[in-house]
Design a protein that fits this description.
Helices cover about 35% and strands about 15% of the residues. α3 crosses α4. It starts with a strand and ends in a 6-residue tail after the last helix.
Length: about 180
């Protein structure tokens, strides 16, 4: 299954990190991409949104979302200075992605999309996309108990925040173990 998400970085990618990223075999498959600001901002009046500079767009093949996030983070850590601090899912989804998030089968969701009350696509150019919040509301209205956020995303987000909080903190291994963390 392919999972689409964004990894949030502690700080924007530098040009040096982008160069290392481009020459790293583990990142050569194009499953993780980045946005850089223009080298000469004065020559480009329209710069990318600053929040995009701290995001890596990911499309990773894995059995679960948590596995996909784990693969992305392992690859990202190969670049000195890059630190993943969060993960987000896109606001728009294909029907297949909506099926993944909701836990419903793709065929079942495709049938639901024929219902006149199913949300209209927000984009039909190329790939047909739907607003996830509208699909979520529809599914709940018809009786599917879909969580606001998939459990895998909650786990990944909390784990990345914990790792970021522990970075540089002076906490003994005994304390971490007493908190229930298995650290060797």
């Amino acid at each position: 299954m392919e999972w689409s998400f964004s990894i949030l970085l502690a700080k924007p990618l530098t040009f040096e990190q982008a160069d290392a990223f481009d020459h790293c075999d583990a990142l050569a498959d194009g499953a993780i991409s980045y946005t850089l600001p223009p080298e000469d901002p004065a020559a480009h009046p329209k710069s990318p949104d600053a929040s995009l500079l701290r995001e890596l767009a990911c499309d990773i093949e894995a059995p679960t979302l948590l596995d996909a996030v784990t693969q992305a983070v392992q690859r990202i850590r190969l670049i000195d200075g890059l630190q993943a601090v969060g993960v987000t899912l896109p606001d728009t989804v294909t029907l297949d992605e909506a099926a993944q998030r909701s836990g419903l089968g793709a065929q079942s969701l495709a049938q639901s999309s024929q219902d006149r009350h199913f949300p209209a696509p927000v984009s039909r150019e190329g790939t047909v996309l739907y607003a996830w919040d509208q699909v979520l509301a529809y599914l709940r209205d018809v009786g599917h108990p879909v969580p606001d956020v998939p459990q895998d995303l909650v786990i990944a987000e909390q784990a990345l925040r914990l790792v970021a909080a522990l970075d540089g903190a002076d906490i003994s291994l005994g304390t971490l173990r007493a908190l229930g963390l298995s650290i060797d």
